[in-house]
Amino acid sequence: MRKTSGAVVCPGCGRLVDVNDPVCPYCGRTSPGMFGYGPALQRLLGGFDLALAVIGGCVVLYALSLIIDVRGIRMAGMFDILAPSSNALVTLGMTGGFALARGWWWTLLTAVFLHGSLLHLLFNMVITRQYLPHVVELYGPARAWVIFVVAGIAGFAVSNFAGGMPTIGASGAIFGLLAALIVYGRRTRQHAVAQQLWMSAGMMFLFGFLMPSVNNWAHAGGFAGGFVASEALSFSGRRESPLLLVLAWASALLVPAAFTLQLLTLSGMLSGR
């Protein structure tokens, strides 16, 4: 497992360095060999696909929302095929004015990974699979994940402030990914690409106004959050600093913590009755 001599690929800049170098001579990353465990970790995580991880998590949570309240599953129409009940979605962390009134701030995050029907899930996951790998390629996985999370939270924060309707879904975070691609195109002076992406964003916003029960406030907030987060994160050389990695890991750990907090809170409320 531990390599004590030879070269290793620096996870910060992708160049070969000595496994025992205390600092990468190219990008300045501390302990690029990770005390000899870098090669093993890179083999373990080399095939990690952030988009598939997000999609897999959303699918599991959607299946769980159906299992929690099987009798409450709705089949009212095309947009409600295999729609989980409101009780199941509240249990898992749906957000809205009602949630923030109770102090459930963590639902701004949990709601990003919940979906209200089979069509809702399929549509959002197809778009996630389309955009997220590109953001990972251009910004690196840590930045891409932070952008996704920030955009999702910002989208629901704007939605709750504007109307407070009960809401779920990854579409706000997806608009943040689109904003990240626009920022990259603008900052690298690829104006034709940026213009095309702006047109795609406009069409997606328009589509949201034409479809029923679409949270356009979350879309707008997610786009703004993704835009600001992308501007704040430098992608020059795709170096991922220790601070950025800490932020990415902290936000990743916050997701299961938020779901746990939601379940513990509801369990406490039920036991107190």
Number of helices: 11
User: So, CATH architecture of the largest domain?
Assistant: Up-down Bundle
CATH topology of the largest domain: Rhomboid-like fold
Tell me which oligomeric state these chains represent. Answer: single chain
Helices and strands, with pairings:
Blueprint: E1 7-9, E2 16-18, H1 38-45, H2 50-68, H3 86-92, H4 97-101, H5 107-110, H6 118-139, H7 141-162, H8 171-187, H9 191-210, H10 216-232, H11 242-271
Helix pairs in contact: 2-3, 2-6, 6-7, 6-8, 7-8, 7-10, 7-11, 8-9, 8-10
What does this molecule look like?
This protein is an all-alpha fold and 273 residues long. It has two domains: 7-45, no CATH class; 50-271, Rhomboid-like (Rhomboid-like fold), CATH 1.20.1540.10. Helix content is 63%, strand content 2%. Strands 1-2 form a two-stranded antiparallel sheet.
